[in-house]
Design goal:
The complex is a heterodimer of chains A (392) and B (66).
Chain A: H1 15-20, H2 22-25, H3 31-40, E1 42-46, H4 52-62, E2 66-70, H5 95-106, E3 111-115, H6 124-129, E4 133-136, H7 141-154, E5 158-164, E6 167-173, H8 181-184, H9 197-200, H10 206-223, E7 232-237, E8 242-247, H11 269-273, H12 278-284, E9 288-289, H13 291-299, E10 304-308, H14 312-317, E11 324-325, H15 328-332, E12 345-349, H16 354-365, E13 372-374, H17 377-384
Parallel strand pairs in A: 1-2, 1-4, 2-3, 4-5, 9-13, 10-11, 10-12, 12-13
Antiparallel strand pairs in A: 5-6, 6-7, 7-8
Chain B: E1 2-5, E2 8-11, H1 18-25, E3 32-36, E4 39-41, E5 56-61
Parallel strand pairs in B: 1-5
Antiparallel strand pairs in B: 1-2, 3-4, 3-5
The chains are: A alpha/beta (392), B mainly beta (66).
Pfam families (chain B): ThiS (PF02597)
Protein name (chain B): Thiamine biosynthesis protein ThiS
Organism (chain B): Sphaerisporangium melleum
Chain lengths: 392, 66
């Protein structure tokens, strides 16, 4: 199914532009008309991180006239392994500013619009309204569902990509011509079940594999060439080195884009996706200590049993002295409980406090009523107790 | 009945549906999509879609990274 071009062509290309884009212009399918459409195009990239980096860089080089960047975060050293739009000297800088500077360096003819804000239900509709299409490079389910819903409500194409370790998925969701994200995944996995890249890792170059697919589809939609990835889910396996695609149809019962929609405006996405499960939230309430409090307990030689619920490889990167490694999965399967002493206070920690809250719910249910977990996890320990340790 | 689920052969009852195939791999439903012979079966049709001998079932999990 080919689609008509999304954007009308600009009036003309300047001499500079003709020189710059000559390798596009001599492709018959793109040509002057296609390049003029790109010049007139307004593309918004949500997130200047792993996927946003290659996406913004190639969109800029391709000559997309207006490029918006939404990001509220600052560049961290641990971003540089994959977020190639930022460099060493950008550490500590706002990502949107850093990304905009790279875009201007790649192509000064691009008009970069910086949205140095967190995307929320209060601003997403206004921000999206000014753009022809949305490229998604966000890193959490709540924002992804919000981006999808806003795109459907505004009738805009949403170029979606997501990555984890060696696996990537991409599709173009456009309710007018095919399914939306909710037709494929009606709701996110339960909180804590699917790790984020911060918890599970991601091969840096995977960002390029999926980000470039997203740019490829953006260019096709803007110029009206080829077979767009509408109604197809592209699945990439970097270890097998295989790209496959499966058909996705519009779900007539989709609550957002189906025949009788029940979602007709933006919803509460944090509640929809849940940062941690209700059980974990309940367990953690009143049973969360700070890293400093843990340090005080250790210094006072209190009778505690400290458990690190992360994975072995995370433990090897950095750990809290004295912590015993029992991964969260062992708690969920119930096999961890027999390793816990009955006569000591159980203290759980993970990287940032989400996984340990999930494990805490299991431990408390098993009768260890005075068990606690460390809010902020080992990251907080490094920050407040021992800054000489590495973070990840 | 033999079907391939994520590339691995599984022996399922003759009347098995898409939902039955998903249950072979995970008890979770949220955040899961299923394709049979390269076409995603929408969630609402998991119970009403029967499988056939040698079907290729792919159970996919949503990931959030970007």
């Amino acid at each position: 199914m080919s689609l008509p071009p999304l954007v009308e062509p600009a009036d003309e290309l300047t001499v500079d532009e003709v020189r710059r884009y000559s390798r596009h212009l001599i492709i018959p399918d793109v040509g002057m008309a296609g390049q003029k459409r790109l010049k007139n195009a307004k593309v918004l990239c949500v997130g200047a991180g792993g996927l946003g980096s290659p996406a913004l860089m190639y969109l800029a080089a391709a000559g997309v006239g207006t490029l918006g960047v939404v990001d509220f975060d600052v560049v961290d050293e641990s971003n540089l392994q994959r977020q190639i739009i930022h460099g060493q000297s950008d550490v500590g800088r706002l990502k949107a500013e850093s990304a905009a500077a790279s875009v201007r360096e790649i192509n000064p003819l691009v008009n970069v619009v910086i949205h140095n804000v967190a995307l929320t239900t209060d601003n997403v509709m206004d921000i999206f309204a000014a753009y022809d299409l949305i490229v998604d490079g966000t890193d959490n389910f709540a924002t992804r569902y919000m981006v999808n819903d806003a795109a459907v409500l505004l009738g805009k194409p949403y170029i979606w990509g997501s990555i984890y370790r060696f696996d990537g998925q991409a599709s173009v969701f456009w309710a007018e011509h095919g399914p939306c994200y909710r037709c494929l995944y009606p709701e996110p996995p339960p909180p804590g079940m699917v790790p984020s890249c911060a918890e599970g890792g991601v091969l840096g170059v995977l960002c390029a594999s999926i980000g470039s697919v997203q740019v490829n589809e953006a260019i096709k939609l803007l110029t009206g060439i080829g077979e767009p990835l509408v109604g197809r889910l592209m699945i990439y396996d970097a270890l097998e080195m295989k790209y496959r695609d499966v058909k996705v149809r519009k779900d007539p019962e989709c609550p957002l884009c189906g025949k009788n929609p029940t979602i007709t405006e933006l919803i509460d996405y944090e509640a929809f996706c849940g940062t941690i499960s209700d059980e974990a939230q309940q367990a953690a309430t009143g049973s969360t200590i700070t890293a400093q409090e843990l340090k005080d307990m250790i210094d006072r030689d209190e009778d505690i049993f400290l458990v690190d619920v992360r994975e072995q490889n995370e433990y090897e990167i950095v750990n809290i002295p004295g912590a015993v490694l029992i991964p969260k999965g062992d708690f969920l399967r119930g096999v961890a409980l027999e390793r816990l002493p009955q006569d000591k206070k159980i203290v759980l920690h993970c990287k940032s406090g989400a996984r340990s809250a999930e494990a805490l719910a299991v431990v408390k249910n098993a009768g260890f009523s005075d068990a606690v977990h460390v809010g902020g996890g080992v990251l907080s320990w490094v920050k407040t107790v021992d800054p000489s340790l590495p973070t990840y | 009945m033999n079907v391939l689920i994520n590339g691995v052969p599984h022996d399922l009852p003759a009347d098995a549906t898409v939902r039955r195939a998903v249950q072979e791999l995970t008890s979770a439903v949220a955040g899961v999509a299923v394709a049979v012979n390269d076409e995603v079966v929408r969630r609402g049709a998991w119970d009403s879609t029967p499988l056939s001998e040698h079907d290729r079932v792919e159970v996919l999990t949503a990931v959030q990274g970007g």
